[in-house]
Structures are given as structure tokens and as C-alpha cells.
Design goal:
The structure holds 2 protein chains of 2 kinds.
Chain A lengths: L1 H9 L3 E10 L2 E11 L3 E6 L6 H8 L7 E6 L2 E2 L4 H5 L2 E4 L11 H11 L4 H14 L15 H12 L6 E5 L7 H16 L3 E6 L2 H7 L2 E6 L2 E6 L1 H8 L3 E6 L5 H12 L3 E3 L5 E5 L6 H17 L4 E7 L3 H9 L3 H7 L4
Parallel strand pairs in A: 3-8, 3-9, 6-7, 7-8
Antiparallel strand pairs in A: 1-2, 1-4, 4-5, 9-10, 11-13, 11-14, 12-13
Chain B lengths: L1 H8 L14 H18 L2 H26 L2 H20 L1 H12 L2 H6 L7 H28 L6 H29 L3 H17 L12 H9 L1 H14 L4 H28 L2
Helix pairs in contact in B: 2-7, 3-4, 3-7, 4-7, 4-8, 4-11, 5-7, 5-8, 5-9, 7-8, 8-11, 8-12, 11-12
Classes of the chains: A alpha/beta, B mainly alpha.
């Protein structure tokens, strides 16, 4: 008894290895392995067509993998899909609610399917509508809802009875900034309640904001994983960003910085901005010293600087360093799914 | 925004242990309730299906009734059981339309990753459709009564006739659920159903007795299942003997379910 309890606590939320799923000639998932611990938000980060949605569909028992193993909360997705389904919820990329029904009816329906009786279902639906700021729209058909309202109702439907593991497939794609931060608040709240969340995203700042751990996916396999800090550290000790007062100074400033720092300095899309990735493996102090030296040289040569900052590399830069291509470029080329 | 966060903070999640195992009856009834709700919110889905037979009942009775049967009343006695059959058969396609919508709009995926008895979506949907059939039957019968139709079979005969048509409608629905899972869009389901149903309805004994038809057409009308159903309905509603035809209709219903029921389930499960 005690040992089963202990097993239930220690078993990982997801353990997958060697997953393969082919659609025609496209290997959407190609030997993917993944371990997601209990609690917290785990981010699956990758561009469009990288295999994020297919991976989630396999883990949520919707798609049968061609090869490989996956256990969700200790249950095999192929051998015992019902046990998996009893413990998970999935909020897909596109809202799947009944648009002709009202918000209230949608939530009551979901609660009834999960076994709540009529009055408990109504009560629970009412609580959720209040909590998600949808009480005023409760009796309106969902087709009149905004994108953000639909997404919130979709997430509410997923937690009518709290799942042990919640899959959120690109929960903020297509949302305005305000709705986006509302969804983020909801995810943080769910995690405080003890739910494990596996979230896919193509937004690097979203992964950075929400996720305790991130796996970077490209062409159907995991190419890196760790905490956001670890991933950034693996790319380099820091990034120096400089914004000049005069765009016309940029070429000479670039030469001066390259000489002072000993690394390549990249021009940014902003015509007055430059970025230098400081040497990989350098210690924290060295990055600071190097940046200070660079700024001193600029000042000595009489080039006025509007702003500068020494920071960690962004996940955009991480992606570029890991894959050798830009996340956006890949989205354009690899959009097959 | 602030309100949302505060409200969230005060709510707790019930534990994950409350997720139950699938339940056959309960899940099916919930899905039936969903189908009824959807029907109520989308009356336009039924409007076409009811509009055509109502129009035909009025048109044929008043325009051709005298010419075809000697009197309007005489013809209505012949026609009304037929338009009732036509109405219900046209509505059966709703089962395929809503399943197709569920597939293309993601509801199917939502239910498929829940611990719900999986056939409940389809079977519950068909149970919910019975409400549509009853509503449509009441409408057509009501119209008939207003126009002066007096069923010789009495209330009992009419109820039996409606019951028989519900059984047949339920059975035919399985054709459309299969197609709803295969065809690309609801529009394709709709077009195909129309292409099948119009010839089946017209090349039958709904409007005229097959006695005057050319031989090849008469042969088709005789094997057309719609003709058998219409004959059975006429017999029940007009109070004449109907055992043979009723038996035939029930047999055909069983056959349809035996073929398209498992096929629907196979297609539903196979969609991975």
C-alpha cells in the first residue's frame, strides 16, 4: 500500500522514448524521447511543423505512434488509453467547444460527462465562469465570444474536474496581449493548485515566462532540454546589446567592439543597434569585464551611445545556436503539419 | 483582469481522483442532451428538411389531388403517410452532418481523449435526433389534420406508424454517420444525401400509385425500401392490415444497423 503510494508520487508525468509517427512521407515525430517531471509547467518549444502537436496527440491517446513507448502518469498510452484519459485534459490549438451552445451549457456538458450530477455540474460551471471572468457571457452562445473568451472557456472546460496532467497546445496563438496574459495567469494558478502542465509554444518569451523546464523540438526530435537558464547558459555567458545615438556610427562602432571583445558583432534590424554574443563558457565576471571594456572603447573613440545592456541570450538566440537556423525561417519552410 | 485573478485565487480545484470510468448509459444520455440542445439552438438545420415535405404536401394535395385521386381529401389520405416518411428520411441526414461537424471542428478529439464511453457520442446523438423526428412528425401530422386528414387507424394506428418510422429513421441514420466520418465536409454529406434521397423519394409510391408507371420504373419502385415503408405507414394510419410490410421494414432496419453500425464504429475508432 505504502509502496504503491510512493510509486504514485514519484512516477514521472510523462516518460516517452523512441516515438515515431509518419504521415505519408513526412516524419512528423522522429525518434522523440521526453521525460516530464510532476508539477510545474514543462514547455515544448519549437517552430510550426516541428512535431509539437503530433507529440501531444500521441501522449493524449489521440494518435497511435508507429514506434516507441510512452507512459503518461505511469500508464502506457497504447495498452491502457482509458487510464490515461481519466487523468488528463487536452486544450487544443483550436477551440473545440460547441459554438451554438452557451458557455454555461458547454461547461455543464463537460462536467456531466466527467460524472458530476446535474446540480454539482451547474454549480461547478458557475464557479468556473465566475473565476474566468465569463459570468456575464454565461447565457450567450459561444459563437459570439471573442478569441480570448473562447480560449478561457476552453481551458475552463479542461479543468471542470482537475486533471493530473493538462496538455495545452499553443494556448495563446492568435490572442491579443491582454488575453495572453490572462491565459498565463490561469496557467500559473493551475500549477499552484498542483496540476502538471505540458505546454507547446512557438513563442520563446512564453516559454521563458511560464516554464520551469523546456525541451526544444525541431524536425520531430528533441534537440535540447533543461531550465530556461541552462539553455541560455549553454549558448554563451551573455549578450551585449548596444544602441547608438547615431545610426551612421554603426559601422565604425562595430569594428571597435569586435576589436575590443574578440567576437563577431551582429547588426540588428534596428539601424542603430548592435549585438555581441560574448564568448561561450566565459565566466560571469569576464562577460561584465568584456562589456565594460567595449563600452569604454566606444566612449574613447567619441561614439555616443543611447543605451546598452548586458543580458542573458534570448531563447531566439538559443534556437539559432541550437539549430543553425532561425525559428521563423523554419516555420516558413517546414510548415507541413 | 484583476477581477479574474482574484476570483481564481478563491477557487480550489477538486482532486483528480474524482474522474470516473466510462459509463455507458449515463454518457449516452448526456450526449443525447447535447444533441437536443444543438437542435434547439440551430433550428435552421431542420428547416430545409421540414420545408420541402410541407411544401409538397400543400402543393400536391391542392394542385394535383383532384386530378390524381378524384378529390383533395381522397388524395390526402394517400399522400400524408408518404410525406411523413419523406420528412423523417430527409432529417436523418442531420446525424451525419453533426458528426461531420464534430469531426472537423475538433469536438470528436475532445471526447476521444476523455474517459467517456466512446460510442456515446454517436449513439447519444442518434437518441437526441429522435426528438427532431417527433417534432417533425407532429408538424406534418398537424398540418394534415388542419387540411382535413382523418386517419382511419385512429390514435393507436398513428402512434404505431410514428414508432415504425422512428425505428427506420434511426437505422438509416447509421448510413449518414458512416459517411459523416468519411466525407470531407458537412456540405459533401448534405449534397450526397440529397442526391440519394430525392430519387428514392420520387421513384416510390409517395406521390402516385405505381400502377400507371412504365415497367422498368415500376420494377424499381417495387424494390425501393421507401415504397415498403410508405405502404406500411398507409396501412397503419388508415387502419388496414400491415403485418407483412411492417415485418419487411423491421427486417430492413435490422439489416441497415447490422451493416452501418459496425462500419461507423470501425471508422470512428480507426481515425488515428
Amino acid at each position: 500500500m505504502l509502496s504503491t503510494l510512493a510509486a504514485a508520487v514519484t512516477v514521472a508525468a510523462i516518460e516517452a522514448s523512441g516515438l515515431v509517427k509518419t504521415f505519408g512521407t513526412v516524419r512528423a515525430v522522429d525518434g522523440l524521447g521526453l521525460t516530464v517531471p510532476r508539477r510545474g509547467v514543462f514547455g515544448l518549444l519549437g517552430p510550426n511543423g516541428a512535431g509539437k502537436t503530433t507529440t501531444i496527440r500521441i501522449l493524449a491517446t489521440l494518435t497511435r505512434p508507429d514506434a516507441g513507448q510512452a507512459r503518461v502518469l505511469g500508464h502506457d498510452v497504447r495498452a491502457d488509453p482509458v487510464a490515461v484519459r481519466a487523468r488528463i485534459s487536452l486544450t487544443g490549438q483550436f477551440a473545440t467547444l460547441d459554438v451554438t451552445l452557451t458557455g454555461m451549457e458547454n461547461l455543464v456538458l463537460q462536467a456531466r460527462l466527467l460524472g458530476l450530477n446535474r446540480s454539482a455540474a451547474r454549480q461547478r460551471a458557475g464557479e468556473l465562469l465566475d473565476a474566468f471572468g465569463l459570468a456575464d457571457a454565461a447565457r450567450r452562445a459561444v459563437k459570439g465570444y471573442s478569441g480570448g473568451m473562447r480560449r478561457r472557456l476552453d481551458i475552463a472546460a479542461s479543468i471542470v474536474v482537475a486533471p493530473a496532467l493538462l496538455f495545452l497546445d499553443e494556448p495563446t496563438t492568435g490572442l491579443d496581449p491582454r488575453s495572453r496574459s490572462q491565459v498565463w495567469d490561469t496557467v500559473r494558478w493551475l500549477v499552484r493548485q498542483g496540476t502538471t502542465v505540458l505546454l507547446t509554444t512557438q513563442y520563446l518569451d512564453e516559454a521563458d515566462q511560464l516554464c520551469g523546464r523546456i525541451a526544444v523540438i525541431d524536425h520531430g526530435t528533441i534537440i535540447a532540454s533543461g531550465t530556461p537558464g541552462e539553455l541560455k547558459a549553454s549558448v554563451g555567458s551573455g549578450v551585449l546589446r548596444v544602441r547608438l545615438a547615431e545610426p551612421g556610427d554603426r559601422d565604425s562602432a562595430r569594428r571597435i567592439l569586435e576589436r575590443a571583445l574578440g567576437v563577431t558583432v551582429h547588426p540588428e534590424p534596428d539601424p542603430a543597434a548592435l549585438t555581441a554574443r560574448l564568448n561561450a563558457g566565459a565566466e560571469e565576471g569576464n562577460a561584465g569585464d568584456a562589456a565594460a571594456l567595449g563600452m569604454f572603447q566606444l566612449s574613447r573613440e567619441g561614439i555616443p551611445v543611447a543605451a546598452f545592456a548586458l543580458g542573458q541570450p534570448s531563447l531566439d538566440e538559443v534556437f539559432l545556436a541550437l539549430t543553425g537556423h532561425n525559428a521563423q525561417e523554419n516555420a516558413a519552410k517546414g510548415n507541413v503539419a | 483582469m484583476t477581477m479574474t485573478v482574484t476570483a481564481l485565487e478563491t477557487m480550489t480545484l477538486p482532486g483528480p481522483d474524482r474522474l470516473p470510468r466510462p459509463r455507458v448509459v449515463r454518457n449516452s444520455l448526456t450526449m443525447a442532451w447535447r444533441a437536443v440542445l444543438k437542435a434547439r439552438h440551430e433550428p435552421e438545420l431542420m428547416a430545409d428538411a421540414i420545408g420541402i415535405p410541407v411544401l409538397f404536401t400543400l402543393l400536391f394535395t391542392y394542385l394535383f389531388g383532384g386530378a390524381l385521386s378524384g378529390s383533395v381529401h381522397q388524395y390526402l389520405r394517400f399522400l400524408l403517410p408518404g410525406t411523413l416518411v419523406m420528412t423523417i428520411l430527409l432529417i436523418t441526414v442531420c446525424a451525419g452532418l453533426s458528426l461531420n461537424n464534430d469531426r472537423t471542428q475538433g469536438a470528436l478529439d475532445r471526447f476521444r481523449c476523455m474517459a467517456v464511453w466512446q460510442p456515446a457520442l454517436i449513439i447519444g446523438g442518434l437518441i437526441g435526433d429522435v426528438v427532431r423526428y417527433l417534432l417533425a412528425a407532429a408538424l406534418v401530422l398537424g398540418l394534415g389534420l388542419v387540411m382535413g386528414y382523418r386517419p382511419a387507424g385512429g390514435a393507436g394506428g398513428v402512434l404505431l406508424a410514428v414508432a415504425l418510422i422512428l425505428v427506420f429513421g434511426f437505422s438509416v441514420s447509421w448510413i449518414w454517420t458512416s459517411l459523416g466520418l468519411v466525407l470531407r465536409s458537412a456540405q459533401a454529406v448534405s449534397i450526397l444525401s440529397f442526391a440519394v434521397q430525392v430519387p428514392l423519394s420520387f421513384a416510390s409510391n409517395v406521390f402516385v400509385s405505381p400502377a400507371t408507371l412504365p415497367g422498368w420504373l415500376r420494377a424499381f419502385v417495387r424494390v425501393n425500401p421507401v415504397s415498403h415503408l410508405v405502404t406500411a405507414e398507409r396501412a397503419l394510419m388508415n387502419g388496414t392490415a400491415a403485418t407483412g410490410e411492417v415485418g419487411w421494414v423491421l427486417l430492413a432496419s435490422a439489416g441497415l444497423i447490422a451493416v452501418f453500425g459496425p462500419l461507423t464504429m470501425l471508422l470512428y475508432r480507426g481515425r488515428q
